[in-house]
Design brief:
By secondary structure, the protein is of the alpha+beta class. Helices cover about 25% and strands about 25% of the residues.
Length: about 180
Amino acid sequence: MAGLKEKSVRFAGLPNKSFDGGCRMIDTIKLMDFGTPATNLGAMTCPLAANFTDWARYAVRPAAKHYLGAEVVRIETMGTFNCRNIYGGRSGKLSEHAFANAVDVSAFVLRDGRRVSVLTGWNGSSEERAFLRRLHQSACKRFGTVLGPDYNAAHANHFHLDMARSMRNGTSFCR
């Protein structure tokens, strides 16, 4: 929390909660303001919040100006906490969403009114493709797991970003 305060990020602490099936929100916060509005953000772990705000500030904003010639005015997400298994299956390992340790990013709205979605932009114009691939690549340096359209059909419309360390040597799982 101190690191977020140092970066002038406004947030509110949330109470710890545990749910049936092993899902939990422990030491989570709600982002209030970090300079770029984002939709559907709920409970997030502090490491996820710190990396998400840094990614928005130091990757999303500059990439939008560089590749699209416009400022990002909103990041659209599909949310953070969701008590479910990986791929929403009835059984199996819990998703990082079940621990408020993941966010799914679906689109970016620009000041000029354009909306660049992962679903249409991943194979869209050359500028949109370059922008989204740069963001995906940058996310791989900040998050433990990054999944996008090239991973599987379930991720065709969003980037899944989480803080889990997926490989034994501590590097990210980036697909």
